[in-house]
Amino acid sequence: MNFELTDAQRLIRDTVREFAEKELAPIAGELDRRKQFPEKPLRRLAELGILGMTIPPEYGGAGADTVSSCLVLMEISRACASTAVAVSLHNTLSCEVLYRYGTEAQRRKYLPALCRGEILGGFSLTEPASGSDAASLRTTAVRRADHYGLTGTKLFATNGSRAGAIILFASTDLSQGDRGITAFLVEPSMPGFRVGKREEKMGLRASDTVELVLEDCQVPVENRIGEEGEGFRIALASLVNGRAGIAAQAVGIAQACLDASIRYAKERRQFGQPIAQFQAIQWKLADMATEIEAARLLTFRAAARKDRGLPFTAESSMAKLFASEVANRAAYEAVQIHGGYGYLRDFPVERYARDARVLTIYEGTSEIHRLIISRHLLADE
Description:
alpha+beta; Butyryl-CoA Dehydrogenase, subunit A, domain 2; Butyryl-CoA Dehydrogenase, subunit A, domain 3; 3 domains; 4-stranded mixed beta sheet
């Protein structure tokens, strides 16, 4: 197996790393404190060709591979995890879903604008009574001639109040369970659509997470994605596609924790020497670095299998599971190494610890991913 990046992949990584270090990292703490959506950074990333980067050039994308996409998310997450979340969802759960499952007319209408950053993409599946059990959603879609009337409430919609095109799931036949779920592309200007409350979160405070309320929202039939009843399959496949991106976010946050810990350990002096000279600190750093590298390689393996057209469901769950838990351990140790200062907002590890916590929850909890992995292991050949 070749672990070396291509010249193109290194160029993309280095370009985004320079942007993240010079333009994003210096403002990330302030974005978090003010709960300010990263509009300017997203415009710059659009200029760099990062938004919709895996979409083919004929639709406005850069035609990049999944490994490159993961490299980008790692670098952005090292600087600002909130910005990375917006990019990840836009690219994988909006642009890629539309490209894979949309009609040619839908692709031509929406993808160029999404890739240019003129509109932001959203994805809405979760509901008040429907989380890990996505098939239990209760939002309904009733067809009336040339449109559907969507009624229900969606929760935890990332980019929800900022998005110009939202991939949203509703049931066209509640009696059919998951076979009745259908996917739609909803625009916020459609009658009956409104944004509800903005969630107050522990971490990722600069990202946009809102409630969406649909009151007989008028969605044209041509905005249905796939056929009626295909939505659940589309949702599950889309989430599998996005898991390497979540793993990449986790690796980026974990790397930021390690970088900050190394800097602090070299600068902080106790008992007459830098704390980096104490074996207790050295071992923490060694364990963090080893786990982060393992998470990085698991992420690359899942991404590479996707790029090669190989099955990657179990591999993406392994990457997401391991990387998300590594990020949380790295954040814990980073705060511990910083001591009392790590508990203060003056130091970025406090933000990293808050941002990392959700990684084991969203886009499949650790428990759900263990279930997915075990089912693959126990499946009959």
